[in-house]
């Protein structure tokens, strides 16, 4: 009777332990499945093994091109990990590929023909080795040092590790898949960039065609007037004036194009944008007022930015000129400055005609214009300059009417 009670107690204890192990495994696999990135996953795996088994060190090998290589270790000296590779075709590699269970190191030492390879692993102080197999393929192995308590690994421990190994294999496989999806995405984005680049080249082609047309027009006019002028006695000043205007128009086109392609050579220095805005608007205030536009400045304390003042002035002048042209019957232009994270933000809000929803994306394309005499180069030049300053230029429709153009530039040192 006493014997029976003892046996029952033992079975009960074993069952409880098994239940506890299963519950732990369930928790662990749930946790592991939630870690998608390979590196943090490997960290988690090692920490779990250290914690669950109470060991001082653990090493994780992963299969890479036919060889098991150390991928991550915890509680080990790095010199002890050097040169620790196991070929999958070696006797030891073959054995581990077929073993679907956790193995005591002592058992590995007994494999005939693998003595040399096992000996090479000596410095890992491996007590138990767990192959991580998935669908018959060896994904890696995990080696654990002896328990800190000095207690041996029990058959229960080995069973627990064997079941855990399956979960680890699946989690690693998932993370590798995730990494490869990430890589594919990166590749896709690169291809997309190349496409955009070739689209840019196509834009340059279209630009050249438009340009040829734009320059040819005034040239044709000049030619006609020169013919008139060359006729004896026809030196009238009106004709000369037309020629001058057309030559100026060509000069403007070429000048703006040069702005677009000129390398950003002006030296940069830490500048106060509030100051630059005050300078720019003081020159324009009177002229704007004459066109019925009031200019309001709303300047908050802001950090310095590392910039070329001439280029930024060009951007501000361009945005102000556009705002003015959007308010042919007058209105209000407000220039705001403020800090947003580590960026200085300068916004230009007008009460003009505004921008149609579908137009917003096209505004920065070279030669996009809705104006009769527009060149459509202003905003693309502005964007190029701001991008070269590691900033960005954003546009949105005003709350009630008009448009808001915002320039964001990183503060000095960011
Ligand atoms: P351009 O002024 O020669 O047309 P831009 O590149 O400076 O060239 O501007 C492109 C287009 O963006 C303009 O034709 C206009 O339709 C639109 N745009 C720019 N600024 C504003 C603004 N403040 N309000 C409304 N539309 C604007």
Describe the overall structure.
- This protein is of the alpha+beta class and 414 residues long.
- The chain folds into three domains: 21-180, Beta-Lactamase (2-Layer Sandwich), CATH 3.30.450; 200-261; 269-410, Heat Shock Protein 90.
- It is built from eleven helices and 13 strands.
- The chain is elongated.
- Residues 322-323, 326, 350, 352-355, 363, 368-371, 374-380, 403 line the site of adenosine-5'-diphosphate (ADP).
- Residues 322-323, 326, 350, 352-355, 363, 368-371, 374-380, 403 line the site of adenosine-5'-diphosphate.
Ordered list of secondary-structure elements with their pairings:
Blueprint: H1 2-34, H2 38-53, E1 58-64, E2 67-74, H3 78-81, E3 85-87, H4 91-98, E4 103-104, H5 105-108, H6 115-119, E5 128-134, E6 137-144, H7 155-230, H8 237-261, E7 269-271, H9 273-290, E8 293-299, E9 305-307, H10 309-326, E10 331-340, E11 343-350, H11 378-388, E12 392-397, E13 403-410
Parallel strand pairs: 8-10
Antiparallel strand pairs: 1-2, 1-6, 2-3, 4-5, 5-6, 7-9, 10-11, 11-13, 12-13
Bound molecules: adenosine-5'-diphosphate (ADP).
Descriptive labels:
single chain; 414 residues; alpha+beta; Beta-Lactamase; Heat Shock Protein 90; 3 domains; 6-stranded antiparallel sheet; 5-stranded mixed sheet; 11 helices; 13 strands; 53% helix; binds adenosine-5'-diphosphate
């Amino acid at each position: 009777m006493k014997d029976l009670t003892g046996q029952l107690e033992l079975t009960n204890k074993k069952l409880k332990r098994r239940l506890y192990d299963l519950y732990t495994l369930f928790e662990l696999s749930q946790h592991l499945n939630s870690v998608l990135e390979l590196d943090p996953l490997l960290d988690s795996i090692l920490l779990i093994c250290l914690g669950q088994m109470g060991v001082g060190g653990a090493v994780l090998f992963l299969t890479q091109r036919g060889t098991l290589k150390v991928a991550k270790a915890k509680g080990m000296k790095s010199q002890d990990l050097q040169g620790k590779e196991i070929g999958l075709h070696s006797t030891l590699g073959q054995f581990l590929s077929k073993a679907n269970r956790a193995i005591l190191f002592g058992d590995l030492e007994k494999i005939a023909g693998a003595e040399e390879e096992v000996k090479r692993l000596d410095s890992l102080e491996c007590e138990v080795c767990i192959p991580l197999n998935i669908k018959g393929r060896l994904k890696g192995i995990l080696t654990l040092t002896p328990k800190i308590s000095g207690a041996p690994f029990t058959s229960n421990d080995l069973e627990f590790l064997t079941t855990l190994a399956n979960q680890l294999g699946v989690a690693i496989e998932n993370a590798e898949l995730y990494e490869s999806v990430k890589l594919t995405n990166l590749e896709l984005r690169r291809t997309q960039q190349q496409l955009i680049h070739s689209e840019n080249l196509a834009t340059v082609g279209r630009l050249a065609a438009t340009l040829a047309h734009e320059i040819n027009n005034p040239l044709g006019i000049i030619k006609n007037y020169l013919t008139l002028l060359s006729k004896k006695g026809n030196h009238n000043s009106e004709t000369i004036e037309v020629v001058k205007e057309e030559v100026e128009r060509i000069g403007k086109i070429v000048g703006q194009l040069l702005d677009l392609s000129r390398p950003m050579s002006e030296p940069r220095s830490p500048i106060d944008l509030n100051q630059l805005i005050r300078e720019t608007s003081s020159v324009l205030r009177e002229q704007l007022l004459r066109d019925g536009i009031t200019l309001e400045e709303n300047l908050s304390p802001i950090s310095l930015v590392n910039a070329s003042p001439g280029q930024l002035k060009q951007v501000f002048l361009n945005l102000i000129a556009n705002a003015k042209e959007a308010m042919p019957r007058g209105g209000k232009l407000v220039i705001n400055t403020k800090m947003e994270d580590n960026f200085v933000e300068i916004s230009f809000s007008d009460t003009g005609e505004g921008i149609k929803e579908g137009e917003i994306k096209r505004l920065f394309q070279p030669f996009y214009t809705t104006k009769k005499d527009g060149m459509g180069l202003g905003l693309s030049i502005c964007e190029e300059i701001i991008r070269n300053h590691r900033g960005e230029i954003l546009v949105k429709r005003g709350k009630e009417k008009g448009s808001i153009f915002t320039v964001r530039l990183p503060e000095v040192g960011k």
